[in-house]
Structures are given as structure tokens and as C-alpha cells.
């Protein structure tokens, strides 16, 4: 059940799909604009050095775009599983769904899609993003997810990355993401 062209009523803003990232698209378009502007300048270079500059600049732009795109992508680790799982807490109702986890340098993205999407008189299609940047509090985002009443599979995966989790995934991924991001910049 959606309102206003597919925006769910309990979200303050529309979310982007797990496979499509707006910042990543912006990075790609900026580097394509730089490459196109260089190609416009290229006829002004005289002699055989034109080909040298073409290869040099386009290769440099490609490597730079790839490094910046890796920074903005959420595909450091990717995992999906089709499962038959409980849907809500304290309920015996089970759903057949696909659960996906995308771990990036700045956080995780958890997707839950029912197969079929309409089960238990509900549309089961969730895409939740939890970030662990320095300015943002992952534990507070997890607490907000609990208050929203997200389904059990989403909360179960998100809980594994909380600072109080005995798994220790928060410490490993948060530090690794922070230092990898600093190195890329």
C-alpha cells in the first residue's frame, strides 16, 4: 500500500534501489563530462603527441573515476539468500522472501523482497540503508528501525552490525571502511 506515486507513508523521503545509487551516477556523469570536454580540446593538439595525450588523459580519467566510484558504491561485500522466514516479531506467520545484504565503505543496505511480493495481505518490499560514517550514529539508526517496526530479517541483519553485538562486525567493518575511504580520498 503506497501513497503519492509509490512513496511509502512512513518514510520521510523516497529511497533509491539497492542496485542504483544516485551519488554513483553523479560521479560517472562528472567524469564523462570531463572526458567529453577533453575530446573537444584534442583537435587543438598538434602532431603525434595528440595520441599520447589522448591515451594519457583518458586513462587517467578512467582510473580516477573508478577509484571515486568504488568509494560511493555499496558493494564491498554482497550476499543474497532465498528463505522461508518469520515476518514479524511474536507471530507464527512465515513468508518466502529474498534477503539481500550489501556492505559498503559507508554502511550497509538490507533488502527484503517477498516471492511473490504480496503475502499476508501486505506488500513485502523493503530497502533499508544504515550508515556508519563518523558523524552518524549507527545505534540510533538501528533504534529508529526498531521503532518503525521493520520485519525480523531486516532487524536481525542490522543488529549484527550494532556496536553492542557480540559478533564484532561493527568494529571490523567500521574501521576498515573508514581507513579504506580515507585512503581512496
From TrEMBL:
<comment type="similarity">
    <text>Belongs to the DUOXA family.</text>
</comment>
<dbReference type="Pfam" id="PF10204">
    <property type="entry name" value="DuoxA"/>
</dbReference>
<keyword id="KW-0812">Transmembrane</keyword>
<keyword id="KW-1133">Transmembrane helix</keyword>
<dbReference type="InterPro" id="IPR018469">
    <property type="entry name" value="Dual_oxidase_maturation_fac"/>
</dbReference>
<protein>
    <submittedName>
        <fullName>cDNA FLJ50085, highly similar to Homo sapiens dual oxidase maturation factor 2 (DUOXA2), mRNA</fullName>
    </submittedName>
</protein>
<dbReference type="GO" id="GO:0005789">
    <property type="term" value="C:endoplasmic reticulum membrane"/>
</dbReference>
<feature type="transmembrane region" description="Helical">
    <location>
        <begin position="53"/>
        <end position="74"/>
    </location>
</feature>
<feature type="transmembrane region" description="Helical">
    <location>
        <begin position="20"/>
        <end position="41"/>
    </location>
</feature>
<dbReference type="GO" id="GO:0015031">
    <property type="term" value="P:protein transport"/>
</dbReference>
<keyword id="KW-0472">Membrane</keyword>
<keyword id="KW-0325">Glycoprotein</keyword>
Amino acid at each position: 500500500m503506497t501513497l503519492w506515486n509509490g512513496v511509502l507513508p512512513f518514510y520521510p523521503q523516497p529511497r533509491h534501489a539497492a542496485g542504483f545509487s544516485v551519488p554513483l551516477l553523479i560521479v560517472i556523469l562528472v567524469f564523462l563530462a570531463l572526458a567529453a570536454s577533453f575530446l573537444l580540446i584534442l583537435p587543438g593538439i598538434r602532431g603525434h603527441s595528440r595520441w599520447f595525450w589522448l591515451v594519457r588523459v583518458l586513462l587517467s580519467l578512467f582510473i580516477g573515476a573508478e577509484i571515486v566510484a568504488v568509494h560511493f558504491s555499496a558493494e564491498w561485500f554482497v550476499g543474497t539468500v532465498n528463505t522461508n522466514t518469520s515476518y514479524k516479531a511474536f507471530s507464527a506467520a512465515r513468508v518466502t522472501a529474498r534477503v539481500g545484504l550489501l556492505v559498503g565503505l559507508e554502511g550497509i543496505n538490507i533488502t527484503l523482497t517477498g516471492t511473490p511480493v504480496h503475502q499476508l495481505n501486505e506488500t513485502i518490499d523493503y530497502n533499508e540503508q544504515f550508515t556508519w560514517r563518523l558523524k552518524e550514529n549507527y545505534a540510533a539508526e538501528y533504534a529508529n528501525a526498531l521503532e518503525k517496526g521493520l520485519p525480523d530479517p531486516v532487524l536481525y541483519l542490522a543488529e549484527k552490525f550494532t556496536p553492542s553485538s557480540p559478533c564484532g562486525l561493527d568494529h571490523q567493518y567500521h574501521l576498515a571502511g573508514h581507513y579504506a575511504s580515507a585512503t581512496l580520498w
